[in-house]
Amino acid sequence: MIAAALSLLGALVVVAVVARIPALRRRSAAAATLAALTVALLVAAALCARAAGTVTGAAQVAAYALTVAAAALSADVIVRTVFDVGMVRRRASAPASVDREADSAANASDAANAPDTASAAGDPDSADHGRPGPLRGGLAIGVLERTAVTVAVLAGWPGGIAVVLAVKGLARYPELREPDASEQFIIGTFSSVLSSLAVAGVGILLVR
Length: 208
Known about the structure:
single chain; transmembrane; transmembrane helix; mainly alpha
């Protein structure tokens, strides 16, 4: 069961890497399928970890590494799927006013010259696949956020989650006045953190 649990965590990492292929990122159906596969693998890993009991030695080191990697990477496709079925994306695709269209064009123009345009296009905090949203760098920030949350949980310091969220909130505060930004921030952060906590729970079952 230990080998099965570790293999399933590794499979989560592989699925997360596949989900980052640009051709798949642009298709909502593919993202939803990969999100469902991610959830299924996570549930299976949790069941195997519960049956396996505590691991030691090299297996414990592998469990820590795979848990952090899976938590950091696998939540991206889940967050994007949550946005796909949420109100933020539907509102973003609705007809906008002339001023909003002008703002969107300006944002797209700025994004073309920004160094993080590629990551913004797949930003879990972004409201639309077709154009960048007001929150920039969400893909990289999400990976760092989930890594910090998972490490804090595995280290037995749940208070670290509050520190991570506080830092993110302070850093994002100037952007939260943009249209739809607060909804994106809340939905993106909650789905990201909850996903990382679920993966961290599998790691805890293995190492404690």
